[in-house]
Amino acid sequence: xxxxxxxxxxxxxxxxxxxxxxxxxxxxxxxxxxxxxxxxxxxxxxxxxxxxxxxxxxxxxxxxxxxxxxxxxxxxxxxxxxxxxxxxxxxxxxxxxxxxxxxxxxxxxxxxxxxxxxxxxxxxxxxxxxxxxxxxxxxxxxxxxxxxxxxxxxxxxxxxxxxxxxxxxxxxxxxxxxxxxxxxxxxxxxxxxxxxxxxxxxxxxxxxxxxxxxxxxxxxxxxxxxxxxxxxxxxxxxxxxxxxxxxxxxxxxxxxxxxxxxxxxxxxxxxxxxxxxxxxxxxxxxxxxxxxxxx
Amino acid sequence: xxxxxxxxxxxxxxxxxxxxxxxxxxxxxxxxxxxxxxxxxxxxxxxxxxxxxxxxxxxxxxxxxxxxxxxxxxxxxxxxxxxxxxxxxxxxxxxxxxxxxxxxxxxxxxxxxxxxxxxxxxxxxxxxxxxxxxxxxxxxxxxxxxxxxxxxxxxxxxxxxxxxxxxxxxxxxxxxxxxxxxxxxxxxxxxxxxxxxxxxxxxxxxxxxxxxxxxxxxxxxxxxxxxxxxxxxxxxxxxxxxxxxxxxxxxxxxxxxxxxxxxxxxxxxxxxxxxxxxxxxxxxxxxxxxxxxxxxxxxxxxxxxxxxxxxxxxxxxxxxxxxxxxxxxxxxxxxxxxxxxxxxxxxxxxxxxxxx
Amino acid sequence: xxxxxxxxxxxxxxxxxxxxxxxxxxxxxxxxxxxxxxxxxxxxxxxxxxxxxxxxxxxxxxxxxxxxxxxxxxxxxxxxxxxxxxxxxxxxxxxxxxxxxxxxxxxxxxxxxxxxxxxxxxxxxxxxxxxxxxxxxxxxxxxxxxxxxxxxxxxxxxxxxxxxxxxxxxxxxxxxxxxxxxxxxxxxxxxxxxxxxxxxxxxxxxxxxxxxxxxxxxxxxxxxxxxxxxxxxxxxxxxxxxxxxxxxxxxxxxxxxxxxxxxxxxxxxxxxxxxxxxxxxxxxxxxxxxxxxxxxxxxxxxxxxxxxxxxxxxxxxxxxxxxxxxxxxxxxxxxxxxxxxxxxxxxxxxxxxxxxxxxxxxxxxxxxxxxxxxxxxxxx
Lengths: 295, 356, 380
What we know:
The complex is a heterotrimer. By secondary structure, chain A is mostly helical. Chain A has helices spanning 6-36, 54-60, 73-104, 108-119, 126-137, 142-149, 163-188, 191-199, 204-233, 236-240, 249-258, 263-291; strands at residues 39-41, 47-51. Chain A has one domain (72-291): MetI-like (MetI-like fold, Orthogonal Bundle). A two-stranded antiparallel sheet of chain A has the order 1-2. Chain C folds into two domains: 11-244, Rossmann fold; 245-379, CATH 2.40.50.140. The two termini of chain C are 48 Å apart.
């Protein structure tokens, strides 16, 4: 007991609230979900307290078709969600990278204005903003009206309820999450390093590959994680703009809890999603750690 | 680990917390100890009661009414199972009423002894667990049919015609609802919408999969899309009549001739209700024909109260889609609880949604 | 690096002009018609106060900035057409600009990697370059693990490993402490001699410039004030600006009152200064420079001097011991302050005491009038 210094005690006191909060409201539910995923579904929701491994079997292939049926469709859905999340991540990155450079070169006033504009959507509900996109994308919507008025199209493009609409919506929703961390790492780059690279003979693309990209990698990773994880679970955009024709892992989990009354299976799907995300994220974090200067 | 084991053994308490956590729902715990003020807490579907009814009730009785809403039977059940307390009256669909009765969640009110109950149409005492109306008061019903844009589709009478529209370059949508969509598949195969026969469901699944490429969306945002002409016709509730009445030149609603599903919600008192006598007062209040009619007119759905029906405006009373004749009524099927059979439906639904 | 015959006009800058728009909208001339010729193995320093255009000129040679008009030839081929990454010059940055994500070996080898030098050759040259700057075996370390001086050496190694035709150094020593800075000055000078390539060194520190340079280019307001060896710049400044900017100076302005035997007597606000000059005419306005170290101290009796003796009478205000010498802060009768550097052994005088500061008329430098005028214009 004596070995704790005053400072250590203070640290413990300072960290205690956050630790308690995370422990109760984050780790706790996670543990409950982990436990539930191994239980038998109750007839009307809830669980029966019997060990039941068929939930995982249904997804991963050892269900015997007697209690539960194995179906590849769940892995397909997981893969498709991951694909959409990956596409969203890459596209937001593509949009945000040049924008971050452009804005970081602006005057202080221009920067402030642009950052304000980028965070502006946070002030209103996502659902309302997606409804606005419905008004834009539908056949009688603004996008088609404008293109028609310009004589660029003779009949509506059929954007609404398409995968294009889903991708547009996803990019729109997640751009701020990508932009902000990216911008903060882009802005930190010392212009002299870029000059130094040029000076040492690197053409612009080489400079980008060998200096700019590695130095903004923490921002790229942070932004990618911030976009990838919520877009993996997002089902609102596919539902509203894609017409719910495509099931995402988020829809599937919602379906299990609210309609199929199969909480353990919903918990199983969530656990599988969390585990695969943890694997991906820790892989990336590991890579970043390796490449970062210790400071 | 010790914490986990003790949590596992005290299962009942854990399941409450867990459900909250798993669903990410905010647990609602209304205070039932307000003694000074008479209160009544309703838990209803969104936009499913005329606010004027509540205002009139408060004006007449002095009982303060709060209203919370849910968007599906399962959501309501999940919340109550997760430990939400304080609600007095809920409005489950009849099959959910059966579930909740079997879960011993509903209070026996003997509302069928109340004055005015004789006006309730016997055809609407359809809950299997409550054939005499000892527990719940039939509240409202409606068909689930098709709303369409008359400028794009001059006339529409059947599912057959509805599913043929995409081949004419016209877009259609279905509801984003497992039971309703599979229900259409069953109806089109002449089967019962509550069938748990795997052959029946296979046939329904095949029908839906065949239609999948032609369906623009599974959505509840049907009305504005049909009104603007972006969608020619959409699977929707009779509540669409509210918009049809506002814009009769563009919109129309029809119960397809092959038949359709119907829903009915009953007004039930929870065993856990803190204000049971106030709940009883509200049910009796709602038995008055003019109150019931007031609600039906605003909701543009079906009434279960024959005295109220006679009070409806002629346009509603004589509309075959809102107050259908007997031969149409016979073609409307109501959902029952599926028990374990829901797993079969879940699979069909996932297949249907995953198909391209 | 074999030392070729040093071409005298290795780098030629012709009438270089560069303007900047300030945020307020006014036009600033960063470079105002610079003409300069630099030899192949010269250590040349661009010296001037901040804003004089020295860094702009360096950036233009490096390729980080463009010229509005003018020409630059390096080794007889036009330089300005080449993008920065194709120029045969390398830069050592003031902030070192080491890549934080690469270790020292990869920092130094960066240019070699870009040019696809084979791994073995590359590693050998990296080790050589590091050895040349006195850092061995640090390849695996990170820049942040090194001290400022070590980082400086890495930056130097990173630049010279590419064997540039010319090395540009942008105030590379300004972040180092005084002792290290002086050590690095010597090392840089030795390194330049060893490599035999042109070093273009930018600094605002005149001492640094005097220590290291073969020639110094003094810049002011985007113009060249003077180009010369450190000795010329120090002892024969071409303008009042140069004389004031380089070293400590006592400047006397007045008119020539008498000329005889190659000596001219200048009346500067009541006191008379004698200088050696054939060109001066009576009545000509003139400025004279006397460095503090050119004085000798004769204490006390004003009566002992004769009029032929070159000396200034003054009153000592403060005497500061600075090691080998004492710095005397004095005031002439007309109120002009004078600074003198006297051997400590000779400086046994008290503040308030009247003293005579003797000098050799040959040591008095006449600042050319034209240059002086233009310098005054600039100042205005």
